[in-house]
Design goal:
four-stranded parallel β-sheet; single chain; 2 domains; Glucose Oxidase, domain 1; alpha/beta; eight-stranded mixed β-sheet; 38% helix; 605 residues; 16 strands
Length: 605
């Protein structure tokens, strides 16, 4: 089916807006493709260093430009449950490369932060900027110019966006992303959330909380709720960086290993040495980016991608805006109910039909572009499948059924959970921000209440414990933007605000910080820009000011005389405590040079 008229119009607008940057980018990509990689242009000393540890046969092969060499960029560490399975992937990839007549080398490792470990801790202030550091680290690995293609091993929050920025910066190389899969289902996410709220109220102790958390996060693989990590995997598949059906297969299974082998072989097949050359920078275009945004809305995905998708697109010379994202939300229905906007986890989503069923439904109404390039070939219809193993242990694909395996988890396009997506842009006299409403009950889409202002998330936690917040209010948590302190996630505010909402109070959050892919049932206007540190209007709000957050109209306003509000002096915060400790001093240059949230909050131009 042809693309929906609104999808076509928004895509055309992005194409037109991006023309100067996109054309310059493609010229650079094509020029780089003609120059290399040609290992014969490396000096003998360069080349000798590059293959010093290889076998004699591999050295002979790499001495010319006939045998493809695959660069592996890995985000392995064994502290992240999602990334622990990657320990064995390089050897699997090397073996698969040899079977395909090629060679594979680990080109470099990149850092991988677990936001689950750093939530509410000083280290969280490095989290967003780790995305740009990851892109730079991956760039260093690929800068050796030894490789004909790259595979990227990464899953979690800032890691995949950073790797995508790197892949598009080396856009003359084909790039395949290889997932490791979600952990098996543990303690249900809603039960974990219930225990967290009981702990916030002092009704259970630390031992009970730790027991619940440990039963939820219990083994290798990605956390099973639909936060940024699993939104990343959805994006990589719908944008064509994954092989079809690869995203949500559990680690440690025969199918997972077979998919990894297949991905390595496919990366070698699409180099410039073959007949299916698929450079990442040409493969990903405006249609691919729109498909990613549509997938985000249809699944109720992470608010973090209002930052990451903008930054990823810019790496390919594509200018995506929050307005584009918001308008796409107006025409894309919500088709998935996965925690926090449902009780199911990603294993249930996959069992119900997963990405194959989701893409099939979106294609039925032209809500995604089918005429795109992917690492698998041409056309998104090839992704309307489920991956399985045949009797010989090889990957085979079957088209998914027309019916969902569980309509409570994954809906058809004819009977969506709601007619619009989960993300909206907000504008008003305190700036511009975004809100995720897919998990927020309709009666809470509009909140009007007095402001209670905090300059630190800990201040809110302490006020809650003192019993000072048993009332209707909108929490304004400011000086949390990228220039102030690196824009940490404020996910630890969810339990106390959730408790207050359950007590019957009207509550909401307004912040220039982030709220993560786990944004849940409390309305939260996030990513406010200009941020308070830049003298944004959020810095002028005072305790008691009436604020109206209207997710229906898409507005966020302080209800007072415009001249009086404009004439107020902006508050100033002492941010010296955010300058040092846990590596924060190393990121001072990032804070100074960070762009605004609506441009991706990146240090890259």
């Amino acid at each position: 089916m042809a693309a929906h008229s609104s999808i076509e119009a928004i895509t055309a607008r992005i194409v037109e807006r991006s023309k100067p940057q996109r054309e310059a980018y493609l010229e650079r990509v094509r020029r780089a493709a003609t120059r290399g990689p040609h290992r014969t242009t490396l000096s003998c000393g360069n080349l000798a260093h590059g293959f010093a540890v290889c076998s004699p046969a591999e050295k002979d092969a790499l001495a010319g430009d006939v045998v493809p060499n695959l660069g592996i960029i890995t985000a392995y560490n064994d502290m992240l449950s999602a990334h622990q399975p990657y320990e064995t992937f390089p050897q699997i990839i090397r073996d698969a490369a040899r079977q395909a007549g090629g060679i594979a080398q680990v080109a470099g490792g990149v850092p991988a932060m677990c936001d689950g470990v750093t939530q509410g801790q000083p280290g969280m202030e490095l989290s967003l900027f780790s995305r740009d550091a990851i892109a730079m680290a991956a760039g260093i690995g690929l800068s050796h110019n030894m490789f004909d293609a790259a595979v990227f091993l990464g899953i979690c929050d800032k890691i995949v966006p950073g790797l995508v920025i790197a892949a598009l910066s080396f856009g003359h190389l084909p790039s395949v992303f290889i997932p490791a899969g979600p952990m098996t289902t543990g303690l249900p996410n809603d039960e974990k959330s219930r225990i967290r709220q009981l702990y916030a109220e002092g009704k259970v102790g630390r031992a009970e909380l730790l027991d619940a958390e440990s039963k939820s996060y219990h083994g290798p693989g990605t956390c099973t709720f639909y936060g940024t990590a699993n939104s990343n995997q959805m994006l990589m598949e719908i944008m064509g960086f994954h092989l079809p059906g690869a995203s949500f297969v559990n680690p440690g299974t025969p199918l997972r290993e077979a998919l990894t082998r297949e991905a390595a072989k496919r990366a070698l097949a699409i180099t410039a040495l073959g007949n299916e050359f698929t450079p990442a920078g040409e493969m990903i275009d405006e249609r691919s980016v729109v498909n990613g945004v549509v997938g985000l809305h249809a699944t109720g995905g992470s608010t973090n991608h209002t930052l990451h998708l903008v930054a990823m697109a810019r790496a390919a010379g594509i200018l995506l805006t929050w307005q584009d994202i918001s308008e796409l939300s107006d025409v894309v229905p919500l088709l998935a109910r996965v925690y926090p906007n449902g009780l199911a986890d990603v294993n249930h989503f996959h069992a119900a039909g997963g990405m194959g069923f989701l893409i099939k439904q979106l294609l039925r109404q032209g809500l995604v572009h089918d005429d795109v390039r992917t690492v698998f070939g041409h056309g998104l219809e090839a992704y309307t499948v489920e991956a399985k193993l045949d009797g010989n242990g090889q990957v085979v694909r079957e088209f998914v059924p027309d019916e969902s395996g569980d309509p409570k988890v994954l809906a058809s396009i004819d009977c969506p959970f709601q007619p619009t997506g989960g993300l909206k842009m907000l504008t008003g006299n305190i700036g511009k921000g975004v809100i995720k409403i897919s998990a927020v009950k309709p009666e809470r889409h509009v909140i009007e209440a007095p402001a209670v202002v905090f300059h630190d998330q800990q201040e809110l936690q302490e006020a809650f414990k003192r019993g000072e917040l048993n009332k209707d209010f909108i929490a304004v948590v400011r000086f949390q933007g990228p220039k102030a302190n690196g824009m940490p996630e404020l996910h630890r505010l969810t339990p106390p605000l959730g408790v207050l909402q359950d007590r019957g109070y009207k509550v909401a959050l307004v912040t220039d910080g982030r709220m993560s892919g786990a944004s849940g049932k409390v309305p939260a206007a996030i990513h406010l820009t200009p941020e308070a540190c830049d003298g944004g209007p959020i810095a002028k709000i005072r305790d008691g000011d009436m604020i109206r957050l209207d997710a229906v109209a898409g507005t966020i306003e302080v209800l007072m005389d415009a001249a009086e509000f404009a004439g107020r002096a902006a508050a100033i915060a002492d941010l010296s405590e955010n300058e040092y400790g846990m590596g924060r001093e190393l990121f001072a240059a990032f804070r100074r040079n960070a762009g605004p949230a609506d441009q991706g909050a990146s240090v890259f131009a």
